[in-house]
Structures are given as structure tokens and as C-alpha cells.
Amino acid sequence: MKLPWRIPTYGPVIETSLTEREATELRGLAILHGLRVLEIGAAFGYSTVLMGQVSEQIDSVDPHQAHWSLVTIRANLRKYGLEERVTLHVGASQEILPQLECGYNFAFVDGDHTAAGVAYDLAQVQRLVAGGVVAFHDWDESSCPDVRTVLEAWRSPDYVIDTLAVYEMAS
Hints:
It is built from 6 helices and 7 strands. It has 171 residues and is of the alpha/beta class. It has a single domain, classed as Rossmann fold. It has a 7-stranded mixed sheet with strand order 3-2-1-4-5-7-6, covered by helices on one side. Strand 4, helix 5 and strand 5 form a beta-alpha-beta unit.
């Protein structure tokens, strides 16, 4: 499957590569587990806004290497009234995640799609989301083969919707 960037027909009007089915599931997971949400990879903030509208608190981690992506996500958070609910952590997950404390109920991972990046983010969410749920984006996405390879070496997902692989984490 190849997921193009586009303006979605579901949720906030922000460019994304999430499918409508993935977005619906992501929002549903945030409703069920959205006390404290960790997001790794935010781009323009579609998933941030989608989850932020139904969650109490989100820590969003993204390097925002292009200045305009940071400007855009800030504008989108302001537009949807989520500035107080979302904390933007600007930097690579390797810099930011070690500083965060355990206790997240849900994590959405759509960050560095290299084998090393996926493995690092997986190790960190295992530490940060004990007893919660983790969803990795781009499972079986043709341009991101390392996502599935790394995750399958760990374990099979509890279920997959399009390219969203969902895992219940043990306490």
C-alpha cells in the first residue's frame, strides 16, 4: 500500500497520509485511552488535532526539520483551540523521549521510519506506555518496509487497519 499526502475528508482539514479508516481508529483509541497521549511524528498536526480534540493531554515529539512544519502545526493547534492541551517537543525522539516520564495511556508512532528509528521508538514506548495501547503507522506501507520488519521481529500486532498496527501493552 502507498499512502499519498492529501487533504482528508474526515476530521480536521490538515494535510495527512492517514486513511479515513486509520483516522477513525486513531480517534477511537484516543477516546478510550486518551488521558495522557504520546505522539511521535506530527508533521502538520492532523493526528495531533484529531487526538487532541478527545484527549486530556498530548506530548507531541517531532524534529520539525522544515521550519514551515512547525509554523503550520502551531497555527493548526491555535485554529482548533488545542494550544493548552498539546505540548510540542521540537527535536528527534532520541533527544526528547529519554526526558519523558512513564505513565502514558496511549502512543501513536509515525516518526523515523528507518529500522534503527523504529527500534528506538519501540523501546521507548515500551518504557513509557506500560498497560496502555500503542499504534504504529505505516505497517506495510511500501515506502517504509522497516516498520513492519522491526515490529514483526518484536511481535505480531493485535490488529491492523490499513497501515495502522495496534498493540496492547502489558502492565
